[in-house]
Amino acid sequence: MSDRLTVRKTYKLYIGGAFPRSESGRSYPVTDGKGRFVANASQASRKDVRDAVVAARKAFGGWSGRTAYNRAQILYRVAEMLEGRRDQFVDEVRHTGASKTQAAAEVDAAIDRWVWYAGWADKISAVAGAANPVSGPFFNFSTPEPTGVVGIVAPDSPLLGLVSVVAPAIVTGNTAVVVASEPAPLAAVTLAEVLATSDLPGGVVNVLTGHRAELAPWLASHMDVNAVDLTGVPDGDVAGLQDKAAENLKRVFRAAGDWAGDPGTARMTAFLEVKTVWHTVGV
């Protein structure tokens, strides 16, 4: 009988394509559905939020400048890798108290949703854009463009909720700083490992774990964040974060609970800016 000790996994942050510990050196215990210890997760700080925003801004130009078809290819590759690590995700979702059947259903739904959003990468511009009728010798086009850096407070659904808020933000060319579920962050870190070993450039998605009440205000008030998704924020905290977001006229999106139903296009169009271009008709 082997007396070998199991190598326990260290759940760290994901910033700029790397896995640093929190600069504060803090961590917090993650427990399962029965209150039993599962792992320690890094407890991110204000400085980690700033570092993540810097990484997201640096990655924005390259990611938004890729063709929509190429973004679709990269996101589909992520789905392939999610499928390959399905059993690991099922185990991590089960830590929340879900049965094996429930956990498997959530993981399968999350993978399918990621694929669904990936397929929209080269189609959303046709839906959200338009060729506008004008009077005169001009062409007039409205084309959607990514907003920029999107701060996201994810819901507590460990994987499906996370995918439902991250995928629509990045598929259109935005970059993201995500505050993962506070009680169930493990699947988020594993998703980050998938992203790090896929073709997704570092900095496109940055994952922070820790206390939502500590991190969300710094994300909402950060002057280099262009939009925030407050889906995972409790109702009583939304107004205060909206006030902070107003300091630099951030877009604010929140439709609590909507991620569980049919995804639709609302989450993608929420983080798009529409540019209208006039062009003279050639003679």
From TrEMBL:
Annotated transmembrane regions: none
Keyword Membrane carried by entry: no
Keyword Oxidoreductase: yes
InterPro entries assigned: Ald_DH/histidinol_DH (IPR016161), Ald_DH_N (IPR016162), Aldehyde_DH_dom (IPR015590)
Source domain of life: Bacteria
Signal peptide: none
Keywords: Oxidoreductase
Residue ranges of coiled coil: none
Record-annotated Aldehyde dehydrogenase domain positions: 34-252
PANTHER family: ALDEHYDE DEHYDROGENASE-RELATED (PTHR11699)
Protein name: Aldehyde dehydrogenase family protein
Organism: Actinomadura napierensis
